[in-house]
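Q: Entry one of two.
A:
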Amino acid sequence: MDVKVRKGLRYIEYAATGVLMVLSVYVAVSYAFGVQTIYVVSDNPSSMSPTINYGAIVITYPTPFTSLHVGDIIVFHDPRGNPGIIVHRIVGVSTCGGAMCVQTKGDNQVTNPTPDPWNVTARYYLSQVMVVVPDAGYLSPALWGFGGSLSVLPLSFVAILALFVAYGLKGEKKDG
């Protein structure tokens, strides 16, 4: 492999590692302060497909509700009182009872052909989506159907698989 290409790949590796470290610190600090910043997209088919598909994770930031705009993707509690959270795009901003409210809609035109039949107020709003990591949610035991102490099983499998991959890559570097 060309020296310039190898050097370029090394810089890309450094940048990717830096971004992952910053995101990890952000998530850890947020969690320490009691703020959930990572959500796994578990509706199948995803109401946000093709933008955000089943199995993706979204990393969020608690942007002030009054700073939201049309086009932003937000995370909020279901205003109908159903359990769980919803990730949808803002398609309209208006005033409801003297306070700001937003109209939302999923990007999936098949499952969400029209805007949602509710308005989201600050009461239901959680945070704004910052980063989408495709397929990373498959590491979550919840998507595998495991709960409680059984959730250790898929995580152990993933850790062992990662060790085998790392060992294999280390062996390739020695051979090459």
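Q: Entry two of two.
A:
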Amino acid sequence: MNEGETKNSPSALRQVVLGPWEAVGGKVGRGLKECCLSLAFLARVLVRFPIVLKNRELTLKQTISIGVSSLPLLVVTSIFTGAVATFQCAFQFRNFVPDKFIGTAACKMILIELGPVLTGLVLAGRVGSALAAEIGSMKEKEELDAMTVLDLDPVRYLALPRFAAFILMMPALTVISDLLAIFGGWLVAVLSLDMTTYTYTSGLQLYFQTKDLYSGMLKSFIFGIIICLMGYLSGANAGSGARGVGEAVMKAVVSACVLILIFDFVVALCFF
């Protein structure tokens, strides 16, 4: 069979026409499978959640690791986020609206979007990657299998303390991020935009609604669950060797960031 006949054979044509669709279908199927496994794992954690107080020391340790250790990075990102938001609002509103509306727009941007989303992305990169690396290394060293052999539930001693720490610290860190971002906006307003403190703060209170704050807190709560699940599951399913652990870390960060943006839209759609 010559080269032309090979290219025009039914199998070759089938590969050209159906190959891309089969590849897409395979990826969609793997994605749905991973979603089902994530929901099943979340159910296992929630079933064991009432016994979280029995692991006070482990939970406290994870709370410090997730919350306190993330503060330096969060301080820098939050202050500059608020500063940029306020400066951009002033640039867009120049000669159109009074200066006090700059504080109004910055406040809503920070409480609804920038505070929870950027906090989630920062923690996904810092804490989610560390969680995936830690669990992946434990799997590589067969420590997870050893815990199972010794009748020690990995979900109770590894996943549950981290899950509790995430859902406790994410809203708290989001509140801190909101306050720091508003402070950064105030610095720019006073030092760069020649606004008075009264003008900026009166704008913060103008058109403020409690649902703005509640939606941000709900987002941070959901983001904490997402980061914990993606980090733990990516590490627990890591491949062998250093390459497998590295791929697990990359998968944990990418999947957490994508899901954060997706659920950010879902919550905004429900609230507004």
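A: Comment on entry two: The chain has a mean pLDDT of 85. The chain has ten helices and no strands.
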